[in-house]
Amino acid sequence: MSDQEDLVVKKENKSIESIDENDEDPDDVDFKDSGKIGSLKALGPFIASKENSRNTVYLSDVPDICKDKPCMLGVDEAGRGPVLGPMVYGISYCPLERNKALEDLGCADSKQLTEGKRDIIFNDINTKEYATSCVGWAVEIISPNTISTSMYRRSKCSLNEVSMDSAMGLIQQAIDAGVNIAEVYVDTVGPPEKYQEKLLKRFPNFKITVAKKADSTYPIVSAASICAKVTRDHALKVWSFPEGLVIKDNEFGSGYPGDPVTRRFLTEYIDLVFGFPRLVRFSWSTAENALADKAYDMEFDEPDSEKPKYAGTKLTKFFKGTTKSGEVIREECRFFKQRHLENVMEF
Amino acid sequence: MSITLDFNGKNFAKGKNLDVHYLPAKIDGDGEANVENCFNNYTREATEFGPGILTNALRGYPLMGEKLKVPEGYRGLVLQETEKPISDTSDRKLRLTGVFQDFTYWNYDKVPSNDDPYRQALLLPDVAQALSQPISEEYLEAEIARNKENAKESP
Hints:
Chain A is α/β, with parallel strands linked by helices. Chain A folds into 2 domains: 4-237, Nucleotidyltransferase, domain 5; 249-328, no CATH class. Chain A has helices spanning 16-22, 31-34, 40-48, 64-68, 99-105, 115-127, 129-132, 144-151, 159-176, 192-202, 214-217, 219-237, 260-268, 285-294, 334-338, and strands spanning 9-10, 56-59, 71-78, 87-95, 136-142, 181-187, 207-211, 297-300. In chain A, strands 1-2-5-4-3-6-7 form a 7-stranded mixed beta sheet, with helices on both faces. Chain A is elongated and about 95 Å long. Residues 1-30 of chain A have low confidence and may be disordered. Chain B is α/β, with parallel strands linked by helices. Chain B contains 5 helices and 9 strands. Chain B has helices at residues 9-14, 35-38, 117-121, 124-132, 137-153; strands spanning 3-6, 20-22, 25-28, 44-45, 54-58, 61-69, 76-80, 92-100, 102-108. In chain B, the strands form 2 sheets. Chain B has a 5-stranded mixed beta sheet, with no helix packed on it. In chain B, strands 1-8-7 form a 3-stranded mixed beta sheet, with no helix packed on it. Chain B is extended and about 70 Å long. Chain B starts with a strand and ends with a helix. The model of chain B has no long low-confidence stretch (mean pLDDT 88). The interface between A and B is large, with 39 and 33 residues. Strand 8 (297-300) of chain A pairs antiparallel with strand 3 of chain B, so a sheet runs across the interface.
């Protein structure tokens, strides 16, 4: 579950200054002042300016036509499986009648696209007039710290829940920003039916389609997928370690446990007490296993997990009041017991 | 066996002020820890849970905490034993590593409250004081007089 407080929403045109700046070449716009990503070049610095232990949400400008004409909206995620780095949820939307713009951008089957091609399409979405006039997008960067702490809560919050909350949060923010949504297309790895049901409950007025591999079927999902993937790649590139680590070119591999570069990273950067830097998702079994091997053992207080075992007084209790030699065992005073106090002779 | 606490008022006053964290976990290790970079760097205020509430995480486990002062009239000490005793009966010596006036108390995914064992245990100083404080003659006499007064009033 992503804490609302963790969300840093940067909306465009918050102040008159930012509107003025938008008239300039978008590449030169200082993202810090405008909070805007006007091109591929601005993406890295934008991400770098945010705290990487928290979630960050970014919404692009909503093209006027999207407030007016009924729109389709695609949802996809990037970086679900890796043990390193954030998971990014992305949405993109455009009017139903402007499907052509997506084709012109080349948003088809994002899995077939190379990193370079994805970067070009992402840049086009934000700079080319035919795209900026009708295509909008938004992403949520879910920090690895948030993923770990969600999955390790007392009442565990699964990655699926984190994902759905993020997807629904982004759709809601698009609605709040004035996007006239008619149809929603969602890519999923899990069973589509349950997901679809949950989405329909929350957004009953939309036509909602949840499908596996939707990013190769629906161009609008492909566009969302590209935004998410490019954002995740950049988030890793600009990752700076509050722990003070410096790694040349941020070479830590794909983040998949099978990648030898990632495996080496996981063995080399272990702090005996704190474990990994918080680029790592502690809740992944790969990370857990590495820590069990190499770091100090750590055991958390988990009194909540104790099951109440009361089943009446045990019959044998009455024979337990004395030791073998006949001494009476004194029960500890309740006052001290309740306050977790006991006699300590040695320490 | 005897236990010697090896410090006096002088090195007590000069004792290094330590940044102490009360963690809800047992760490099976002894040594230096990079607390500043790996932990303090990530402490955030979370006022939505109440004034002074802090959040952080330890190996991915969410923590909620607050800055606490050592109870009034008490001082926080960190003692260290440089030589492990050879047997249970041998003498031991503890040295002063540093002192602290406040520390950060952390719970595992729970806002600190009066339910916490730590806070409950802290009732002891008050109880101990009530039990061991000498009672003055005047106080006793006043108490007796009050009791007599009460006995008269009730029929």
